[in-house]
Design brief:
Helix content is 32%, strand content 19%. By secondary structure, the chain is of the alpha/beta class. It folds into three domains: 56 residues, DNA Primase, Chain A (Alpha-Beta Complex), CATH 3.90.580; 193 residues, 3-Layer(aba) Sandwich (Dna Topoisomerase Vi A Subunit, Chain: A, domain 2); 205 residues, P-loop containing nucleotide triphosphate hydrolases (Rossmann fold, 3-Layer(aba) Sandwich). The longest helix is centred in the last third of the chain and has 18 residues. The two termini are 28 Å apart. About 1% of the residues have low confidence.
């Protein structure tokens, strides 16, 4: 895109900052479309309509584009006899070597496994011969191994290394693959980078109807197994038991091809729907006994941690009166979790549309400055804006289906985000924007009970936390003129919300009835189901909202200091 005229934007003169008519408003036949609602900046080549939200930049937005290097063949040579001998000793046949185009590095010291997509070399991984060392092509695109031969396959086996992957082909499975960086460590807070190859290759798993998960028999392997099942869905996955061996290649060397084939035939389902025994959760129970149960993880605000923490598999209600900051508070907790722990979020929030407004809100929280040139004395720089856009692009995904806003439709989009982006949480904001389908003659309380049960099932099935924003009933004032504190049983729609939720939190501006401009805020948890693991019901006071920064302060201190420090350390 070369200039503003390509978009139908009329530029008058050379003034750096201008206002002109918005061609998008004209196209949409907006009311008062003749207004000069489009702001443009000739220096930075950006445009923004304050009426319809249309905006952009006149050039490829580098914040939204990831640049990868494609490997060259300079670092490759034909497979050496030393390399071939190494593979043959590990049970990999000449036929499999040829089929997978395995070569050596130019120095001959390592075996090189090429990664192809549509016949094009996208990445490669090397494995030392004399020492167990691994390396990938620098700045190459993450991709699963053997992508081309898995494309369109209905049955796939996935493991965590190329040698194991090749072992399955020796046993007759041509549609074999592995993650490109091995299994994430159990203690890793952020596993997204190691599993980025799943995001770029999700189509082969989407098209498959059966996926054998054959990860290593160790803690990290079981951690990867759990994540793969979460992303691909229990209905597609079968778990391959490799015990007493660590991986598929060890089985091949020790017991041969028939043992691998037998293990595929006896692979087990992750669970039998609706029927459970201790055996289904035995390993996780023993892990909890030795290493502690699955506790809520920090909000990075010590005061809030006392009242509530993030825990997967739970449904959380966020309530309060309208325009008192329920969404803002939740979004700030999400931004902190994304910035400091790498969490990713699917967000259905029609009331925060247009989309630009929602993303700009997150960006302003993240940077602590305004995105709007109207506030010139506190506007972030274009480099800060683009860096923040890159952050939001990675961690926040808006769900806004055109078809309808029914819960089943939202779940479809959320499932897609679990598989392709590995989201950790789903936010539905607020309850009354969902298109509800009550059965004939169904009472509202029974419908809400069913609705909440579906949220809980989704949270458990996909191991994410679900967050539902719900308004309070019309507020009333006490004798002093203050609005009563929000109450767990006064959520609009009835007490069933609180009955079926794991946790119920509220946001309250206690002085709003007396002074509408007061920024004083109280946060509280009124119901915490698993108090030993998540927090204790209590109230947190002395919270203020700083409008210029779009951030909350707790006893005069913002938790975003940690984010600011991290960005400085990274040279941002």
């Amino acid at each position: 895109m070369g200039n503003f005229s390509d978009l139908g934007i009329q530029v008058k003169g050379n003034n750096e900052q201008q206002k002109t008519r918005c061609p998008n408003c004209v196209k949409l036949n907006k009311e008062n479309w003749k207004d000069l609602s489009l702001s443009i900046n000739l220096k930075e080549n950006i445009y923004n309509c304050h009426k319809c939200g249309w905006n952009g930049k006149i050039k490829t937005d580098k914040a939204m584009t990831i640049s990868y290097n494609k490997p060259t063949k300079d670092s490759m040579r034909s497979l050496t006899e030393q390399g071939r001998e190494f593979l043959l000793k590990r049970g990999i046949t000449n036929e499999v070597i040829i089929n997978n185009k395995i070569v050596s590095t130019s120095d001959g010291n390592s075996i090189l496994f090429p990664y192809f997509r549509k016949g094009e070399l996208i990445n490669y991984k090397t494995r030392g011969i004399s020492a167990k060392s691994f390396m990938q092509s620098k700045n190459a695109e993450p991709l699963v191994y053997n992508y081309d031969r898995c494309k369109d396959a209905k049955t796939i086996v996935i493991c965590e290394g190329e040698m194991d992957s090749l072992s399955w082909e020796v046993a007759g499975m041509e549609a074999h693959t592995s993650v490109n960086m091995g299994a994430p460590n159990v203690g890793d807070k952020n596993i997204d980078r190691k599993l980025e190859c799943l995001n770029t290759s999700y189509d082969i798993f989407e098209e498959a109807t059966k996926i054998y998960v054959a990860t290593d028999e160790d803690e990290n392997g079981r951690n990867l197994q759990k994540e793969l099942v979460r992303r691909f869905g229990v209905d597609k996955c079968l778990l391959v038991d490799l015990k007493p061996f660590k991986d598929a290649n060890e089985v091949l060397i020790a017991e041969g091809v028939e043992s691998l084939k037998k293990r595929l035939k006896t692979a087990s389902t992750p669970k039998v729907e609706g029927i459970f025994g201790v055996s289904d959760v035995r390993e996780s129970m023993l892990d909890g006994f030795h290493n502690g149960q699955d506790r809520g993880t920090t909000t990075h605000i010590p005061l809030v941690d006392k009242a509530w923490t993030w825990r997967s598999g739970e449904v959380n209600i966020w309530t309060g009166y309208q325009n008192e900051g329920k969404s803002m508070f939740l979004n700030q907790l999400a931004t902190l979790k994304a910035a400091l722990d790498g969490h990713r979020f699917g967000v259905f929030s029609p009331e925060n549309m247009p989309m630009n407004d929602f993303f700009n809100d997150i960006i302003e929280m993240y940077v602590g400055k305004s995105t709007d040139p109207y506030y010139k004395d506190n506007q972030m720089s274009i480099s800060e804006y683009e860096e923040a856009m890159d952050f939001v692009q990675k961690h926040f995904f808006v769900i806004y289906p055109r078809k309808d806003f029914q819960l089943s439709t939202l779940f479809q989009r959320a499932k897609h985000l679990v598989k392709t982006k590995g989201i950790n949480a789903l936010i539905i904001d607020p309850y009354n924007t969902v298109q509800h389908k009550m059965r004939n003659g169904e009472r509202e309380d029974l419908y809400i009970s069913r609705f909440m049960s579906e949220l809980k099932m989704f949270a458990l099935d996909y191991s994410i936390s679900v967050h539902l924003v719900a308004h309070q009933v019309t507020p009333q004032k006490d004798e002093s003129g203050r609005y009563y504190k929000p109450d767990v049983n006064r959520v609009k729609g009835g007490g069933t919300f609180a009955d079926k939720a794991d946790n119920v939190m509220f946001i309250w501006r206690p002085d709003r009835g007396l002074d509408f401009s007061s920024t004083n805020v109280t946060f509280g948890s009124q119901k915490i189901k698993k108090q030993k693991l998540v927090g204790r019901p209590q109230e947190i006071e002395n919270i203020d909202f700083e409008v210029r920064e779009q951030r909350y302060y707790f006893n005069g201190v913002t938790p975003f200091t940690k984010v600011d420090d991290k960005r400085r350390e990274e040279g941002i």
